[in-house]
Amino acid sequence: MNSSKTFVRLAPWVFTIGLFVFWEVICLAFQIPEFFLPPPTAVFKATYDYWPAILRNSWITLEATMVGFLMAVGFGLLLGLVIGWSRTIYAGIYPLMIGFNAIPKVAVVPILVLWFGIGFIPAVLTAFLISFFPIVVNVATGLATIEPELEDVLKALGASKLDIMRKVGIPRSLPYFFGSLKVAITLAFVGTVVSESVASNNGIGNLMLQAQAQFNVPLIFAGLLALAVLGIVMYWVMAVLEQRMTGWAQRSGFAQN
Predict the structure, then answer these.
(1) How far apart are CA 80 and CA 89, in angstroms?
(2) What is the pLDDT of residues 43-57, one digit of tens each?
(3) Which of 130, 149, 175, 254 fits as disulfide partner to 191, beta carbons 3.0 to 4.6 Å?
(4) Residue 20 is assigned to a structural domain of this protein
(5) At what angle do helices 40-49 and 2-29 cross, to 10 degrees?
(6) How far are the Cα atoms of 8, 24, 38, 195, 240 from residue 217, in angstroms, in the given order?
(7) Is the pLDDT of residue 250 over 90?
(8) Residue 21 is assigned to a structural domain of this protein
(9) How far apart are CA 58 and CA 56, in angstroms?
């Protein structure tokens, strides 16, 4: 059992190192040009050479992402509660939500630039717009899937609609809510980088755009590596938060594996 747990903890590192080794071997074996696909050694060298710029722009991207993500959490939770409160509201608003989510957010960035100019605010709003939908859907689903039989029994016992939502619906939707945070935080990074690459003078997106203009492909991959690290760290934070808050809802068999 202990050896199994040890392997599970080491598995991410083993697979990550194996991926980089495979990547390096492929580049060397097939002599792939660096301007087409740089090997990991070139990417790590670019990360070392440009680490001040990468660190500074990573912080800017992280800041905009977290602001937009926190806005999405607050708005998504509130709207999810409203939509899940009534099946009529759910049926009326949900199609509009799907239509809004189907709009490519990169097409919205020019509008945000017209309204707020280039810089920090469009990046925050793009992160917000692209990440709040999973939160709304999961919270609303958690509330809307309360069994009608259970509601009838609770109403027969004298519970009001507010009592049912407060004591049954909201606790029931917590696993959905905290699970959606892991999806939303990764989408928030996507929104921020999209906005930075279109309408910003800072951030990882802008850094990668400048590297593209200079045909500095290793720096582009270094920017992607920085985004991957940020995404993994924030996903892990959301996973820990989910485990702390809704550990009671997870399957015991999955937790032991």
Answers:
(1) 11
(2) 999 999 999 999 999
(3) 130
(4) no
(5) 90
(6) 34, 15, 7, 21, 35
(7) no
(8) no
(9) 5
Which residues form the domain of 249?
Answer: 50-256
In this prediction, what percent of the chain has a pLDDT beyond 70? 95
Kindly state the tokens that stand for 104.
């490519």
The first and second tokens of residue 83, run together, are: 């939509």
Span 9-25, mean pLDDT?
A: 92
For residue 45, is it within any domain?
A: no
Global pTM value: 0.88
Which pair of tokens denotes residue 161? Answer: 């609609």
The sign of the torsion formed by the CA atoms of 110, 111, 117, 121 equals negative
Q: What is the pLDDT of residue 121?
A: 94
Look at residue 215 in the predicted model and tell me its pLDDT.
93
Q: Is residue 14 part of a domain?
A: no
> What pLDDT was estimated at residue 45?
96
Predicted local confidence at residue 256, as pLDDT: 44
CA distance 173 to 80: 10
- pLDDT the model gives residue 21: 96
Overall domain count for the chain:
1
Distances (CA, A) of 174 to 5, 48, 241, 243, 247: 28, 42, 12, 11, 11
The values of phi and psi at residue 158, to 5°, are: 100, 10
Token digits for 67?
């602001």
DSSP state of 257: -
| Domain harbouring 215, CATH code | 1.10.3720.10
